[in-house]
Amino acid sequence: MADEITPLIAGNWKMNGTSASLAEVARLAGLLAAGERPRCMVVICPPATLLAPLTAIAAPGGIVTGGQDCHPLPNGAHTGDIAAPMLVDAGAQFVILGHSERRADHAESSELVRSKAMAAIGSGLTPIICVGETEAERRAGDAERIVTSQLEASVPDDWGGRGIVVAYEPVWAIGTGLTPTAADIAQMHATIRQRLVDRFGAGGAGVPILYGGSLKPTNARDILAIENVNGGLVGGASLLANDFHAIISAV
Ligand code: PEP
User: Fold this and answer.
1) Residue 36 banded pLDDT, cuts 50, 70, 90
2) Domain 1-130 indexed as CATH 1.10.260.40
């Protein structure tokens, strides 16, 4: 991993977890306290219902929290949505945006993701902007074109002096147990890095690029060692303290 970028391991709990799940976070905090100091920033993005209580449990152990989505507007008549300032109010420092499940289930375009990212940045959150191709797109040899076009359109021009994070998550690797080859991950991360540098110069060189998609204790060490992989976005394996801790320890 690049020396100058602080690695980041972020857990995406998706639509999983109730107050009973807070015990796993307490267990994770205990594992982290008992072992070596983690060589990465640790983030958990739970459902919005758990943000405040989870932040309270996680913060003393140095674990920070994030939301899984936010609306482009700060408030208003948008039933069921959540605004960036509300996430901040509940203790979040990050927010996942443009996850493939939101792009698919809620028809989110990259332009919408960009407006959400601007709202997040404006509220003091660091957006984790997700990009990734489907299996059909990869088979058609279109993976790089799809990912770079998502990247161009989803990442805002102005970060207001704050940071952003990009997560490369091949859709076909999410929750399937499948992962790209190390060469394919290296190539896509290098392409993303080059695009960010072309567009943002030194700022682009410092953006953490996470890999996401079936990252597990068994493959974390190899994947996290790939050039331009600055950490991971972890779904299923972030729900269990032991598995998530093993991935954190692999950094
Ligand atoms: C995700 O959905 O962000 C993800 C990476 O999921 P999983 O680790 O379960 O593949």
Assistant:
1) confident
2) no
